[in-house]
Amino acid sequence: MGFLTGLSPEIRQYLVVTGNYWAFTLTDGALRMLVVLYFHGLGYSPLNIAMLFLFYEIFGVVTNLIGGWLGARLGLNKTMNIGLFMQIVALGMLLVPAATLTIPWVMAAQALSGIAKDLNKMSAKSSIKLLVPTDAQGQLYKWVAILTGSKNALKGAGFFLGGALLTLLGFQYAILCMAVGLLLVWIFSLFNLKRDLGKAKNKPKFTEIFSKSQAVNTLSAARLFLFGARDVWFVVALPVYLASTFGWDHWYVGGFLALWVIAYGVVQAFAPRLTGKNQGKVPDGRSALGWAVLLSVVPACIALAISYDFHAANILVGGLMLFGALFAINSSLHSYLIVSYASEDGVSLDVGFYYMANAMGRLIGTVLSGWVYQLYGMAACLWISAVFIALAALISVKLPRHQQA
């Protein structure tokens, strides 16, 4: 802890929050890969495996809505540490004997992990608003982009970690290793996060969990369609399509998607440079609209290539790379805008409501990904993705427009 002593209080808190979030994200990605690979080895179909994560997404919706209210009343340090502890408990639930790892039990553990993840994420994103001066919007954008981008890069690294731990240690010892590591991070966090971080001066009522800000509500609606557009083809349809149509084996599919997520996170971290921060610009509603319109073209082009069997494999892989880069910029813009729009007193209320919409979009996308792919195929999933992004762009027309140096 000595290396933190010479830094300013704001930088120290930012590093503690970021390190906490990194550790959680690494175990979250590893746990997902462990569950996927373990149950794939038991003979479960990709769609059935995806359904194991259904409660993970459902409880994410509820947690973001209530978690923002809890963060404003209790303080973000408490909600972040509660999230870490709940992830440790979720990991502990998977340490039971193999015969006891029934589908309902694993779904319950994933539900707890989903609650933990969204408490931790909401707390981390909200905290940054309080650590940056109000007039330093460029610095705020940079810090949010670094946190968001590094999170996704680490989630991809977690996919690799999960596969490696499963190969080297087996399922239970891999889970135990992660639980012990996260326990040490939790103890460190208990002693180093500010006690009153994010606590609202006026205790918000439970009825205030829904945002009263038009900008926050508009951005939340756009976020719902944006993330629904990603997951409607990425969660189930894409891995199954790569395996069944292109003949890729399971490890090739998993490794490719892990690299995609890491590259996606790297682009997110550099999004401020790509969107004009070096020229003294910070994003506004016009930026969100423009980048969403550009993104909507990509899934439509891939859908056409697949429908007409025009170099489908090359265009899908290349299109996926382009989609990832553009989506990363869109996501980073949104992550900055919500922190910028959120009210300073009780910031977690607005951020929690926004990430509730994010979780709802992921839930809708996950369900549609399995259902639409099974009935109509990959091209239909991509057309829905293009329509969802177009709706996000249309909603973004109503976002506030301003330029601040």
Helix share bin? over 70%
The mean pLDDT is 80
Q: Give the SSE string.
A: HHHHHHHHHHHHHHH
Please provide the count of β strands: 0
Strand content: under 5%
From the N-terminal CA to the C-terminal CA, the straight-line distance is 35 Å
Oligomer, anyone? single chain
Q: Low-confidence segments, ≥5 residues, pLDDT <50?
A: none
Radius of gyration: 20 Å
Largest sheet: none
User: Count the helices. How many?
Assistant: 15
At a glance:
With 405 residues, the protein is an all-alpha fold. The chain is 78% helix and 0% strand. Helix 5 crosses helix 14.
Structure notes:
The two termini are 35 Å apart. This protein is mostly helical and 405 residues long. The model has no long low-confidence stretch (mean pLDDT 80).
What keywords describe this structure?
405 residues; globular
Write the layout of secondary structure elements.
Layout: H1 9-41, H2 46-51, H3 54-74, H4 76-93, H5 103-131, H6 137-169, H7 171-192, H8 214-234, H9 237-244, H10 250-269, H11 271-274, H12 285-307, H13 312-341, H14 347-376, H15 378-396
